[in-house]
Amino acid sequence: xxxxxxxxxxxxxxxxxxxxxxxxxxxxxxxxxxxxxxxxxxxxxxxxxxxxxxxxxxxxxxxxxxxxxxxxxxxxxxxxxxxxxxxxxxxxxxxxxxxxxxxxxxxxxxxxxxxxxxxxxxxxxxxxxxxxxxxxxxxxxxxxxxxxxxxxxxxxxxxxxxxxxxxxxxxxxxxxxxxxxxxxxxxxxxxxxxxxxxxxxxxxxxxxxxxxxxxxxxxxxxxxxxxxxxxxxxxxxxxxxxxxxxxxxxxxxxxxxxxxxxxxxxxxxxxxxxxxxxxxxxxxxxxxxxxxxxxxxxxxxxxxxxxxxxxxxxxxxxxxxxxxxxxxxxxxxxxxxxxxxxxxxxxxxxx
Length: 351
Fold this sequence. Notes:
By secondary structure, the protein is an alpha+beta fold. Helix content is 36%, strand content 14%.
């Protein structure tokens, strides 16, 4: 139906259309609706409710302090290698679990206490303020200081000593967790890197058979691996000890030994050298009996066992340490002391 078919009385008049257009134009779609009326909280009108909230916040801060104490106690008491079963996580390090749990609880309680304090005790009246230039005038600065003082007063920071003191205590103790962790950055492990389990009279135990070695057990040209007597594979520190005490036992014809000290520290051509490469600590296991060379499989450092285990190729910085050995009254090979220098890669205390 075209506009010609519509009766004239049903069409809007020009005056009516102009009135509608003016009305729409006067409506501001971005008008400021203003702030809703403030509704007081139960803590604002009931001091008992405010006290309950205060005690709740104080409890959270106190739990944070106790968790921090638990963190420090866990770090001191729990051994590094202790494993526990935690459902449903499974087997985890007891120390790591305790440290994570206590530190997380300490930080969570501080955050939860601060949030609960802000939501229940601090003023929640919304205040609208006009934007101002970046450079503050003296009047604005005075207003800021006045607002700060008013906010401090409304927060109850000065009046509610229990909240203030427990918050200070919790926040002061949490950093102690980090201070305790600094212990691991100290000069420890003192001189432990200079010593191994080898000592005078300790038998050389075949690492494969777990039996003491006799001189006749070591054939010329053979390579045997040994560990010190008393080192058990199920011991909690086995990996730490074997990383320093692992030995290579090789028998060379005495006439083929070029180094005088090596000959003196051997027994009938049987020499004992550290198995730990002096480059980055890889275990050495490749022996060439014709040349008496041993090769590290990691970076191809090569040592001459007939000449004091000196480096003849590769990135290793110094020779393999030799262990002085002998035979006891029962005919077993034994150590005559510890290594006279640290085993493995060079480190800052090497003198």
